[in-house]
Amino acid sequence: MIEDSPKQMRSVIGSRDGMQALLGALAGHGYRVLGPTVKDGAIVYDDVASVDDFPAGWTDRQDAGRYRLERRGDAALFGFAVGPHSWKRFLHPPLERLFVAQEGVDGVTFAPGEEVAPRKLAFVGVRACELHAIQVQDRVFCSGTFVDRGYALRRRDAFIVAVNCGQAGGTCFCVSMQTGPAVDSGFDLALTELPPDFDNDLVVEVGSARGAAILEHIPRRPATEAQLASAQAVVAHTASQMGRSMQTGGIQALLQGNPHHPRWTEVAQRCLSCGNCTMVCPTCFCTTVEDHSDLTGQTAERIRRWDSCFTLDFSYIHGGSVRQTGQSRYRQWLTHKLASWIDQFATSGCVGCGRCITWCPVGIDITEEVAALRIAPDDGSGEGHGGA
């Protein structure tokens, strides 16, 4: 979606004044600017107009089923990992009107449910794992014979300000999935926040022609060798901080070859089938549709909303649900995410962000479940045996 251009020499902008100038430049070009904010005890993505809206000086502590915010010892703007929100909620909204039908004197007419030309979106603070998640959803919604019109329109003009991670979360495993912590493509501008020794200034890398055009409106100076070396050290340190890991070699065959493994029963005994993992996942795309009409019967609308493969109705066909047990639903989710997705879209459906681990109420860990399948693969009897 983003035009490629040769990467220009990296510049440095001030932590607060440079970021404020960037926000102003984006707003001045007609973008709705979205970025990280602190709300309800979490880092969430919302409209930002000022650098004061950012979570300056905040960090997060994450583990399986646990999340809390803490104060840092500095004023870093991006000194945290990822929260419950992903950029999916803006490109693939949780609730979307597909069309409206109106009965009039000339018969029934149909109109699009959303505006034809939605306002351009600018995402500020997109992590490497999230960039990969957006690219995964691009394949789902914009490739092949059928293109999701609403997604394509919103994605077409989206401006991406990425950020190289300076802080890994306790449930992150992007290194295992080769999706981070450094951004490599798919952005207009990329930022690396330097440590307090460099006043938390931001090294800027240009990834597109329109990124270069926006940068022209921002006061900047050439990056020094010391600043570039510090930026590289920040990313290297983050890569060494991963809270989790996942062995991905042969994972497609592992998941698809173990449908009767006893581990599915074990995890189902803990799983609440609440769907939290699918709601916070930046790549999950399951939806359902609902039709509503007014009391007069003259106006009707079709609504699409997020759904989850963990709900009993999701696999319902005439005669009943295909997956009636929690065991079958968890197996479906994990096998599709890490194996069948590769068949469908030539990529894994997991980017290693760790959200599904953090926001699981009972702390089910996707990396532990994969490791358990590797330790004792199914021999066909439903009673796993030792082996690799």
**Assembly status:** single chain
The radius of gyration is 22 Å
What is the total domain count? 2
Portion of residues within helices: 25-40%
Shape: globular
Average of pLDDT: 91
How widely separated are the two ends? 41 Å
Strand order of the largest sheet: 3-2-8-9-10-11-1-12
Taking the sheet with the most strands, its summary is:
8 strands, mixed
Counted beta strands = 16
Low-confidence stretches: 1-7, 382-388
Q: Work out the helix count.
A: 13
Q: List the helices and strands in order.
A: EHEEEEHEEEHHEHEEHEHHHHEEEEHHH
Computed structural class = alpha+beta
Structure description:
The strands form 4 sheets. The chain has an 8-stranded mixed beta sheet with strand order 3-2-8-9-10-11-1-12. A 4-stranded antiparallel beta sheet has the order 7-6-14-13, with no helix packed on it. A two-stranded antiparallel ribbon has the order 4-5. The radius of gyration is 22 Å and the shape is globular. A hairpin with a 2-residue loop joins β15 and β16 (320-321). Helices cover 31% and strands 23% of the residues. It has 388 residues and is α+β, with helices and mostly antiparallel strands.
Short synopsis of the structure:
By secondary structure, the chain is α+β, with helices and mostly antiparallel strands. The protein folds into two domains: 11-239, no CATH class; 251-375, no CATH class. It is built from 13 helices and 16 strands.
